[in-house]
Design brief:
Number of strands: 0
Helix content: over 70%
Strand content: under 5%
Number of helices: 5
Low-confidence stretches: none
Radius of gyration: 16 Å
Shape: globular
Distance between the termini: 29 Å
Largest sheet: none
Mean pLDDT: 92
Length: about 120
């Protein structure tokens, strides 16, 4: 049982990581703005998705345990990236771009929470 659960998470995480890479590259190539828009949008989209999946998981028998592990722990966990978020924050601090740093972190937290809540409401 544990191996099967780990396999579902690994499959979802691998897919989420590849999708994050592709989305980040696509978003970054579409803008020349020094603001880390790619990671911000990927994280907000991931929050929206996990809100939808969470709401669906609350419905009785709507998502199996395996599908929850694949979608929420794997896909969303691989798609969103807290480590890249904090690394970009450190780079902004090192570059002494404190206004952009505070704007980026504020937007990430507020928009991420709002997107999770919106996803939950959409799928409820």
């Amino acid at each position: 049982m544990l191996f099967k659960n780990v396999l579902w998470i690994a499959l979802g995480g691998g897919l989420g990581s590849v999708l994050r890479y592709l989305a980040h590259k696509w978003i970054s190539s579409a803008t020349t703005n020094p603001f880390p828009l790619g990671t911000l949008l990927v994280n907000v989209i991931g929050c929206l998705l996990i809100g939808i999946f969470f709401a669906l998981s609350l419905r009785q028998n709507y998502l199996s345990t395996e599908l929850k592990l694949f979608l929420m722990t794997g896909l969303c966990g691989g798609f969103t990236t807290f480590s890249a978020f904090t690394l970009e924050g450190m780079n902004l601090i090192n570059e002494q771009r404190l206004l952009v740093f505070f704007l980026y972190f504020s937007c990430s937290i507020v928009l991420g929470l709002a997107a999770t809540f919106a996803g939950y409401l959409l799928a409820r």
